[in-house]
């Protein structure tokens, strides 16, 4: 009986390990086009873009690279404009 229980538990453990989703993490930084390494916030929108707010402005990541947006003013609530 103990062997059967042990076999069932081992089978469940192996099944659980194989059933896990595998995620790939990649570090993104200024060498990838991020405007600043001081990240304040990150948001994913409905289109799949990652929006990263840094000390230097707003960045949009599309899975391939960043597009930088910089503020026209440092005032709170200021609009952003497309950067170079």
- What is the tally of beta strands? 5
Oligomer: single chain
- H/E element string? HEEEEE
Radius of gyration: 22 Å
Please report which band the strand proportion falls in: under 5%, 5-15%, 15-25%, 25-35%, 35-45% or over 45%.
25-35%
- What is the share of helical residues? 10-25%
Catalogue the unreliable spans: none
* Helical run tally: 1
Average pLDDT figure: 78
Q: SS-based structural class?
A: alpha+beta
Mind explaining what this structure looks like?
Helix content is 21%, strand content 30%. The chain has one helix at 2-19; strands spanning 39-44, 50-54, 57-61, 66-71, 80-82.
Summarize the structure.
With 84 residues, this protein is an alpha+beta fold. Helices cover 21% and strands 30% of the residues. It has a 5-stranded antiparallel beta sheet with strand order 1-2-3-4-5, with no helix packed on it.
Which key terms come to mind for this protein?
30% strand; alpha+beta; 84 residues; five-stranded antiparallel sheet; 1 helix
Can you lay out the helices and strands and say which pair or pack?
Blueprint (H helix, E strand, L loop, with lengths): L1 H18 L19 E6 L5 E5 L2 E5 L4 E6 L8 E3 L2
């Amino acid at each position: 009986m103990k062997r059967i229980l042990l076999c069932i538990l081992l089978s469940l453990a192996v099944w659980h390990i194989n059933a896990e989703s595998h995620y790939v993490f990649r570090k993104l930084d200024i060498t990838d086009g991020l405007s600043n390494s001081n990240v304040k916030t990150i948001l994913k929108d409905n289109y799949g873009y990652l929006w990263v707010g840094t000390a230097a402005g707003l960045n949009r990541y599309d899975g391939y690279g960043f597009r930088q947006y910089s503020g026209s003013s440092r005032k709170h609530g200021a609009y952003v404009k497309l950067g170079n």
